[in-house]
Amino acid sequence: MSALLGLDKVGKTFARGGLFSSRRVEAVKEVSFALRDETPEIFTVIGESGSGKSTLARMILGIHAPSSGSIRLAGQDVATYERRAFMAKVQPIFQNPFEAFNPLKQLDRYLFMTAERFGEATDRKAAEGRADEALKQVGLSLAEIAGRFPHELSGGQLQRVAIARALVARPRLIVADEPVSMVDASLRMSIVNLFGRLRDDLGLSIIYITHDLATAYYISDRLIIMQKGVVVEEGPARAVLSAPSHPYSRQLRDAVLTPDSAGAFRGGYPPKAVPASGAKP
Ligand SMILES: Nc1ncnc2c1ncn2[C@@H]1O[C@H](COP(=O)(O)OP(=O)(O)OP(=O)(O)O)[C@@H](O)[C@H]1O
Question: Is there a contact between 274 and 217 (Cβ–Cβ < 8 Å)?
Fold first, then answer.
């Protein structure tokens, strides 16, 4: 078995209040997990605000260096990758699609640029082909997007373009940090369903960072639950959320457990009545 991604006792400590401050925050402590090469999956990192999810995502993306432990992609330490080679394998999707794009730049430019930089497209025609293919994978097309600016699209459409931009590189792994929390509640399930299709059709693995238990339950294959930087529970998503053993996991589950959704958490699938947001009942 070869690992696509392997984290071994990864930790991150920040100095609070400037470089010379002695106050330290342990944002992530000794997190270990591996994604298998042969088994594409949606691996969810769930936890409340401040639990260390984004710090973990940034370390996997090579934005922050771990303070301890190691992160390996296809057997190689993430820190030693040449940036372009790394981005061809791992692509990010961030929370706010409106911040991901310059409001003055046409959206197709981003797709062409990614195709040329990370997707090995050698000319404009190849880049257009790549962009159209990726847009179709998210339910759009180059004809619909060509020449359009970010403000001309809805948040949901724009997040689809952000996902298409990631796909243009034909990565092995997508790290999606709260990708649906800025998207209209009615569209959240369609975005997470799209992740499911990308896993099944393209063999992509997705690290899905969220505080939304409902979408996590619905789409995840495996998950870890984080609290104060520590993994308090891990395992197959349905098993963990149906019978959580840690008090914090139970608290999380109960926060979205309405009488209507209770059946879903007892094992019914798909969970028809689970709310699309993490809103408390
Ligand atoms: N650059 C930084 N400098 C100092 N402290 C930081 C930095 N980044 C994160 N932290 C701290 O690390 C802890 C974890 O933050 P992180 O953003 O990873 O949590 P999170 O689970 O992603 O939260 P949220 O859901 O609100 O984004 C918090 O206490 C945060 O204040």
Answer: yes
Best residue for ligand 1 mutational test, from 26, 54, 177, 226 (most atoms within 8 Å of Cβ):
54
At 27-48, the pLDDT tens digits run: 999 999 999 988 999 999 999 8
The pick from 13, 31, 53, 209 for probing ligand 1's pocket by mutation, whose C-beta has the most ligand atoms within 8 angstroms, reads: 53
> Domain boundaries in the chain?
3-265
pLDDT digits 0-9 by tens, 174-205: 999 999 888 888 788 889 999 999 999 999 99
Contact 189, 195 (CB under 8 A): no
What spacing in Å lies between the alpha carbon of 66 and ligand 1's midpoint?
A: 14
What's the CATH superfamily of 3-265?
P-loop containing nucleotide triphosphate hydrolases (3.40.50.300)
Q: What sign does the CA torsion over 40, 75, 72, 99 have?
A: negative
Pair of tokens at residue 64: 């922050």
Nearest CA to ligand 1 atom 13: 27
